[in-house]
Structure formats: structure tokens, C-alpha cells
Design a protein that fits this description.
Layout (H helix, E strand, L loop, with lengths): L1 E6 L2 H21 L10 E2 L5 H9 L4 E6 L2 E5 L4 E5 L8 E5 L4 H29 L5 E8 L5 E7 L1
Antiparallel strand pairs: 1-8, 2-6, 3-4, 4-5, 5-6, 7-8
Length: 154
């Protein structure tokens, strides 16, 4: 018997659904140069280890305040990712924005890379935790960067 798994690219999902909501929220907060720094913007970031891995992949300065708070400093503006506890996703708080368009591009790129890192983590986790009698029969990367795995169960 074979089982087929499709790991839809979280980067694709983020690009389609969350980024448009994030863009609108950022634009709304910075319209006319006035924004409410206390108003957090929802993100898809749940896993702090993957968030740190993604931050490390960027050429920007960031401070780790705690497992639940990171401050990212870019030339376009500052972003604080914060959550109350590990059961919640992070919220994004904006500060000292110099370039709204540049900040939006940074956020989009960062969300896409986080999505790719989540997908890679999930893929590796599946491969490492296959039970006895289970082997990956085939794997294919689809046009939208989804992974198509066929697992043979004996």
C-alpha cells in the first residue's frame, strides 16, 4: 500500500493569503506617517526556532529579548515580533519606519523564507520519523514548490 503526501509550500500559502493581509495592515498603520505602535499585526510565525533560523539568514541586526520577543532592525524600519506565550503566533509591531515600500518588500521576503523553512523542517521531520516498513518510494518538487511524496507502507 502506498500513501501520498503533498507538502504544499507554506511560502505559497503565505504569499497568497497572509502577505496581502499583512500589507494592508502595514499600509493602514503608516498612512499619513502616523501609526499606532501598540497595534500588533498578526503573523504566521509560530515556531521560534524556525523564526530565528530565518532571521539568521538575513543581513540585518536583531536582538533576542526572549523566546517570545525579537527586535529586528533594518534600514527601512524596525520590527518587533512578540507573543504572550509559546502557544500563540507572534504579532508584528512596527517602529521607526524610514521606507514603507522597502519595509513591505522585506516583510514579504521574510515571510516567504519562513514558509520555506517550515516546509523544509516538515519534510526532514517526516523523513527522519518514518516507521519500520515505511520507505519513500518517490518524491517530486512541483511547479509551485510543493513537495509530492509517495510513501510505501509494507
Amino acid at each position: 500500500m502506498s500513501v501520498t503526501l503533498t507538502l504544499t509550500s507554506a511560502a505559497i500559502i503565505a504569499g497568497i493569503s497572509l502577505f496581502s493581509a499583512t500589507s494592508i495592515a502595514v499600509v493602514n498603520q503608516v498612512s499619513d506617517g502616523v501609526f499606532d505602535v501598540s497595534e500588533g499585526i498578526d503573523t504566521m510565525f509560530v515556531d521560534s526556532e524556525i523564526l530565528l533560523e530565518t532571521l539568521n539568514g538575513y543581513n540585518c541586526h536583531f536582538d533576542v529579548i526572549s523566546e517570545n520577543e525579537y527586535i529586528v532592525k533594518t534600514t527601512c524600519g524596525n520590527i518587533r515580533y512578540k507573543r504572550e506565550d509559546t502557544s500563540q503566533p507572534f504579532k508584528m509591531y512596527l517602529g521607526e519606519i524610514e521606507d514603507v515600500d522597502g519595509l513591505l518588500e522585506n516583510i514579504k521576503s521574510f515571510e516567504l523564507d519562513y514558509g520555506r523553512n517550515v516546509q523544509a523542517y516538515t519534510y526532514n521531520h517526516i523523513k527522519e520519523n518514518l516507521s519500520d516498513g515505511m520507505i519513500i518510494e518517490s518524491e517530486e518538487v512541483l511547479e509551485d514548490d510543493s513537495l509530492y511524496l509517495t510513501i510505501n507502507v509494507e
